[in-house]
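2024-03-11 09:14:02 INFO worker-7 job=invfold-0412 stage=load source=structure_tokens
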């Protein structure tokens, strides 16, 4: 079984030893935005979704839950839940999308602490990370800060409910900006900056660590053997690489769903002199480097909802998907959108700029530009965002040989072709289930000895589609990418000014 707690839902899959899907379950939960730039979720609702998705997967697989040999666990990174002495959350989980700690991040940069923290922890300083979130709690919610005996993630909360222990894997810990990559321990300098003690964080274990002795109440509720091997697993990004088979040198995993990410696997921890990328563990011999963009398919949905009503109306009239109509319109426009660039920073930006104040822009608008140009520019802008991360990976780990693509966008041949043309590499689409939950399955197989090497995952994942680059188009995209990057650099100060104005004037 592979269990993945995502931003909008928890997904669970069950496979046999050959990786064949037997059953799947999913349960969703709401996102709370109590103030602009805040993002929270109810930990207990998320735990109920975990239970529901497990029960549904077992039912749909048509098995007895006690047949399960192992369970692997994946979660989204960067959540923070302050816990009281009785093991109860003191507030909602503050998730990765929350930007309330912008001021704390800026102070760390102003005090020249951000580079030191990055090279120790492998995580660029950004409001998404738990360290500045804890600083915010200390300064803005001292009532909660004083009561908190533990600071944990949603994965740790589920494990605490299941096993009565506070424990965290090296991968999820690696996303906190509190975990030292080289010593595999909580970093004293980071703890001092956050204002917390080591005993306020969970016990650190490898991603292949096996837990047994599940709380019998929940084991009985789910129909599981309490002694089933529960493999603690890793963060969703690392497991997404594993889930698409991108674990060998030169193979890059590129995922675009609501947001996007580009990652590759290297044999040891690695940081970037320009501080563009993150680094966290998959296993002790497999380290994931890469970056995530905050602005993936969400940008196309925004444009559809706000500006693309003719395509939406045509889709309604013809029974087609609105995105298919939009992409068909964009296909009629030449690569490069006739000089129209879209900087897709409507949610700020993570890699490679790590700037929560970045804002979206269309650049180069002329009278010759029509709505299809804007649609294509949005598609290309999303891919420019991930291409910039790809450049950082090339600088660190050498040229790619292959891209493994997943996420909703990978279903579109047109979008895949733009990607292949831009990157200049073949794009392969693996036949896989939800990549993070399947990665959790594979890591569980590896932990219990059902898979000898992680690289053997490729025996379980056939390639269903291949997209070859058009090398005549690639130079157009390279030229425009460097203009895109130049525009960002020129507007960096202005982004901060307009972001501050928006914070002052946006209605709560």
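2024-03-11 09:14:09 INFO worker-7 stage=emit residues=508
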């Amino acid at each position: 079984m592979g269990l993945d707690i995502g931003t909008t839902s928890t997904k669970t899959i069950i496979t046999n030893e050959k990786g064949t899907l037997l059953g799947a379950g999913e349960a969703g939960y709401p996102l709370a935005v109590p103030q602009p730039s805040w993002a929270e979720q109810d930990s207990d609702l998320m735990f109920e979704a975990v239970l529901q998705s497990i029960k549904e997967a077992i039912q749909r697989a048509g098995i007895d839950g006690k047949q399960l040999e192992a369970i692997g666990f994946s979660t989204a990174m960067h959540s923070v839940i302050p816990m009281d002495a009785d093991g109860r959350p003191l507030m909602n989980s503050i998730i990765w999308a929350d930007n309330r700690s912008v001021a704390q991040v800026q102070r760390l940069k102003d005090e020249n602490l951000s580079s030191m923290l990055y090279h120790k922890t492998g995580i660029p300083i950004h409001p998404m990370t738990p360290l500045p979130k804890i600083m915010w709690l200390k300064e803005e919610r001292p009532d909660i800060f004083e009561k908190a005996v533990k600071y944990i993630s949603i994965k740790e909360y589920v494990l605490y409910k299941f096993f009565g222990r506070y424990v965290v894997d090296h991968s999820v810990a690696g996303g906190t900006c509190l975990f030292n990559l080289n010593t595999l321990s909580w970093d004293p300098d980071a703890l001092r900056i956050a204002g917390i003690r080591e005993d306020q964080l969970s016990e650190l274990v490898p991603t292949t660590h096996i837990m047994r002795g599940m709380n019998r109440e929940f084991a009985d509720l789910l129909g599981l053997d309490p002694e089933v091997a529960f493999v603690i697993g890793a963060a969703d990004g690392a497991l997404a690489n594993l889930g698409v088979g991108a674990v060998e040198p030169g193979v890059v995993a590129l995922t675009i769903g609501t947001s996007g990410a580009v990652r590759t696997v290297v044999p040891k921890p690695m940081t970037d002199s320009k501080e563009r990328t993150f680094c966290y563990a998959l296993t002790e011999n497999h380290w994931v480097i890469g970056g995530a963009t905050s602005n993936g398919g969400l940008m196309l949905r925004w444009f559809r909802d706000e500006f693309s009503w003719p395509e939406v109306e045509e889709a309604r009239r013809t029974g087609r998907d609105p995105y298919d109509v939009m992409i068909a319109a964009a296909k009629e426009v030449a690569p490069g959108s006739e000089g129209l660039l879209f900087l897709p920073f409507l949610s700020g930006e993570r890699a490679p700029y790590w700037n929560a104040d970045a804002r979206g822009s269309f650049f180069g608008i002329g009278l010759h530009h029509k709505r299809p140009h804007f649609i294509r520019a949005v598609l290309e802008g999303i891919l420019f965002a991930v291409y910039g991360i790809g450049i950082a990976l090339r600088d660190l780990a050498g040229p790619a040989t292959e891209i493994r693509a997943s996420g909703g966008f990978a279903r579109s041949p047109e979008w895949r072709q733009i990607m292949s043309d831009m990157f200049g590499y073949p794009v392969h689409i693996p036949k896989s289930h939800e990549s993070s939950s399947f990665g959790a399955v594979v890591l569980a197989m590896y932990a219990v000895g059902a898979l000898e090497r992680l690289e053997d995952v490729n025996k379980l994942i056939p390639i269903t589609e291949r997209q070859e680059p058009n090398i005549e188009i690639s130079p157009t995209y390279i030229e425009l990418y460097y203009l895109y990057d130049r525009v960002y650099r020129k507007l960096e100060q202005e982004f901060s000014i307009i972001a501050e104005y928006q914070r002052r004037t946006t209605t709560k």
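2024-03-11 09:14:09 INFO worker-7 stage=report msg="The chain has a mean pLDDT of 95."
2024-03-11 09:14:10 INFO worker-7 job finished
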